[in-house]
Amino acid sequence: MVDYDRFLDCVHCGLCLSQCPTYVELGTEMDSPRGRIYLMRALADGRVEAGASLVSHLDLCLGCRACETACPSGVRYGSLIEATRAELEIRYSRPPADRWFRRFVIERILPYPPRMAAALAPARLGKKLGIFRLAEAVGLGHLFKGLAELLPEEPVRIGPLPERTLARGEKKLTVALLSGCVMSVMFQETNRATIRVLVANGCEALVPKGQGCCGALSLHNGFPEDARRFAKKNIEVFEAAGVDRIVTNAAGCGAAMKEYDHLLAGEPGWAERASRFAAKVRDVSEVLAEVGIEGPLKEIRAKVTYHDACHLAHGQKVRQQPRAILKAIPGLEFVELKESDWCCGSAGTYNLTEPQMAERILKRKLDNILATGASIVVTGNPGCLVQIRNGLRKIGADIEVLHPVELLDRAYGNGGERRS
Ligand code: SF4
Ligand code: SF4
């Protein structure tokens, strides 16, 4: 249910408009935060129907929350769009192909790492054989084209992470890592690097068994009941671990878990537990800022720039800590990226469901990255890593795309394998 009073926080000042990627691309009021708030309010009022035109303007929203950062009235746009999308899942009947993608891929496959890993094998084969072109005939062309572009080149096998790794030297914190869905399938090495850098900096690192998806994908796509189910499971598992911090290396997961208190507000027996859980959640860069980065670190001679993932910068207000990691590494020349907190177009599954707009937004990001002259671009979210890596590869740019902990891990003498 949309909390109607929340719409009234918007005073229609328009200060958010220039910060909204879709408004800047299209110049139409209904594709701006202010216009969308107007539409959502009209829908809640019953003044407009849940029809295709309204849904298209709301679907085109990236959910990047740049409008929240810009808003002087404290409008919580993210929760408004999430609640409205849940309403639309009930009130609007999507075309069959869209419905299939949402109900099957988003609800039943992506939040479950073993299913996702299993689905990648036939998907890679389909890509090789060109079967995806058949999908166009049944109206699924855009989804499969997007999926094909994002698929990893190599087969994926999920390897286990160590359940407990002792801190090196004096222990400062005990932390539990959310291994994540996309992270544990597509970025297993980043998860391992995360554990190594936490341990090197005085953290005992646990990876509790039984944990699951953070619920972000479900929440952003209009399935709040699924998100609540995932949240409750994680609360049980991480409570039992009894740690000081719950750490994630995925911006989207961190933003979702820091808001479990909102997600489960008013649920008897869960609201307080959700608040305690949310208060412990940290991005890995926040934990490293808290414990301090210990040397010795090897010199890395390279020019590096940083892309602020939306759900880290706008969702969690974490901006300086990832930059501090880069600045701690000797030899790195750090250069700021123009519009660093402008969305890259990934936005969860947006690059699959809205590929044309995602492409336009990505182009702007790539142009800004190229202008820095950096040989490495760093970002703290799996969606951004895939989107930017893919975009750079397509234009033939020789620029590495890494998570901040991967670069730090390299400075500790680990990894070192060049990935582009
Ligand atoms: S979340 Fe992003 S795309 Fe959506 S209205 Fe706000 S700024 Fe625009
Ligand atoms: S969302 Fe905020 S910044 Fe945008 S029009 Fe409303 S009050 Fe102004």
Strand content: 5-15%
Biggest sheet strand order reads 1-3-2-4-5
User: What is the chains' assembly state?
Assistant: single chain
Bound molecules: iron/sulfur cluster
Given as residue ranges, the uncertain stretches (5+ residues, pLDDT < 50) are: none
Mean pLDDT: 92
The name of the CATH architecture of the largest domain is Up-down Bundle
Structure description:
This protein is α/β, with parallel strands linked by helices. The chain has four domains: 88 residues, Fumarate Reductase Iron-sulfur Protein, Chain B, domain 2, CATH 1.10.1060; 55 residues, no CATH class; 126 residues, Glutathione S-transferase Yfyf (Class Pi), Chain A, domain 2 (Up-down Bundle); 115 residues, Rossmann fold (3-Layer(aba) Sandwich). Helix content is 53%, strand content 8%. It contains 23 helices and nine strands. The strands form two sheets. It has a five-stranded mixed beta sheet with strand order 1-3-2-4-5. Helix 22 links the parallel strand 8 and strand 9. Helix 19 runs parallel beside helix 23 and helix 21 packs across helix 22. The longest helix has 18 residues. The protein is globular, with a radius of gyration of 21 Å. It starts with 20 loop residues before the first helix and ends in a 9-residue tail after the last helix. One iron/sulfur cluster (SF4) binds next to helix 1, helix 2 and helix 4.
